[in-house]
Amino acid sequence: MQKFRLYILLFLMIPFAISAEDGSQLWLRFPAKNGISADKIIFKGNNPTLNIARKELMNHWQGQEIELRTDRSLKNLKGGYKIQSVQNKLVISAEKEIGLLYGVYHILRLQQTKLTTTNINIIEKPSYDVRILNHWDNLDGTIERGYAGHSLWKWDDLPNKISPRYEEYARANASIGINAAVLNNVNASPNMLRKDYLEKVKVLADIFRPYGIKVYLSVNFSSPKVLGGLENSDPLNKDVQKWWKEKASEIYKLIPDFGGFLVKANSEGQPGPQDYGRTHADGANMMADVLKPYGGIVMWRAFVYSPSKEDRAKQAYLEFVPLDGKFRDNIIIQIKNGPVDFQPREAFNPLFGALKKTPEMVEFQITQEYLGHSNHLVYLAPLFKETLESDTYSDGRGSTIAKITDGTLRPSKISAISAVANIGEDKNWTGHHFAQANWYAFGRLAWNHDLTSEQIADEWIKMTFTDNEKFLNPVKEIMLTSRETVVDYMMPLGLHHIFAGGHHYGPEPWGDYKGGRPDWSPVYYHRADAQGVGFDRTKTGSNAVSQYFPPLNETYGNIKTCPENLILWFHHVPWDYKMKDGKTLWEELSYKYDTGVKNVRDYQKFWDKMQPYIDEERFAEVRSKLTIQAKDAVWWKDACLLYFQTFSKMPIPYDIEKPVHELEDLKKIKLNMGHHN
After folding, report:
1. DSSP string, 177-242
2. Which of these is catalytic: 21, 67, 257, 268?
3. Catalytic residue of the set 144, 341, 386, 488
4. What was the pLDDT predicted at 7?
5. Mind listing the pLDDT tens digit for each residue in 77-88?
6. What is the mean pLDDT of the chain?
7. Which end of the chain has fewer surrounding CB within 10 Å, N or C?
């Protein structure tokens, strides 16, 4: 009987041992043994946020006594905190309780990454006021460009049935300083603003509040007409203004700290103020006015482009620069990092710095719409950093996008940074264990954009897997090179948007969608012909270079000075053009594709050697994804080289692995995957 009981006990323990390594804990794998006793935590007051901070310490903190101290004089830290060693204890102080919780997560991170927690003097002030995840989740549970299963938000179950993952989500975000979430898709359903849905939103807002997270909603511009039965949704119509005013009042009665609206208008068929001959400023100002009394903001997206003759990369600038200075002070223009659409590499968006009197915020994409979905290992901190550190020269040298958007270069009432979330209901949250690092990296950079990609990768690996150097160093190398690798095997040298239409997963450089919009076709972007390849954006072409401040307009506009990693973004380059290393453009392109393939194969070899250091479950799942990625890299290389060779008429260099596919077979591949954003 004793033996039988033991078996039962062991059997009961097995699921916990297994489920612990399914990736569901993210980077929050703090020591499971008990932390310090309650009497070693000194604090005054009793509020939900403070109680979470205490609970985290009691569960996980292994160090000395801690005092949590609110100090109203620390207002200048803008939600940040101080951590100081005072005699034999650590004192965490902040203006508000949420700052104390952030401070607790900071010391738990130090403990977990085995950094010193004694004799410390840390002052942390976030780079941005609003650090926001944009969820492209639909009310039916699907997620546009989501690759980790269905939505976390179970609208049909709410408000009565509450998933435990809502709080786990809030905790994960708080641990990296994310303080805002847009719950629904920018292609918004008007129903989001119905009373029954707002009551569901209230439940989420109540769960998130103690973790310092404010809720925002994407709104559909035609809501007054669709929901309110009004004749139109013209922003200058008094009845429309009254409808929005009453809707704002209804929202704030339910959710007093509601953050505000995110708006996609007059883009890709979405309704907007231009439907009524009004401007983006007219539409945004009407919404800003109704939110103003409550402290709410409007994030108005600059991702607008219409079927016009103009180069798509120029359209946001052309649309918004004439409106500079016409927006209310609680409006911020949300600008994608590049001027086209979240490509593996883009020139930065020329709108950054061009709006001198209007606050601007970056929109990144964490979800890998154009980066192999959740099948490819691509660490995105280097992409985020590349944008943030880009010098626009808008106010002279050193006018980086980080300084323009964080308020240091141009003080504004509010600063913000956003990214499209990659989170779904998969056990591991993001569909690929390494995709968790991109959620983590965005949060860490939103809090402190001076951190390096390497520091963030180092923290994340130690917190998520192990600090064993035999694992840490090779895996960090994979992560830090992975973004450049994907650019090499997909779209090197500034090639862009040559994806298969609709799902954006595989290559389709031959794509020429007759009868559709030209700027949805790959051939629009690469312009390959017998002479060469690339989009001429110089003075002889679309003149998109003119939207950049000097000296960049000249640098990009001159083929000799244009950075080679963007040469095909700005120039139509002859196939036999001599690159800086002496190769012709055609050879350079061939070697880049080949390097991308070789690198992924190296990742596979590195990863196979990592088996002794981590759990079998995550090891096997990552290994299987790398197998897919290696096959996809060959698919990309073969499709692009065989297709472009029909124009270049040049041989693929002899020392490169020959294509394993035939071009005609590749053209027949049609993936059936579930729209555009």
Report:
1. T--EEE-S-SS--GGGGSHHHHHHHHHHHHHHGGGT-EEEEEE-TTHHHHTT--S---TT-HHHHH
2. 268
3. 341
4. 41
5. 999 999 999 999
6. 95
7. N
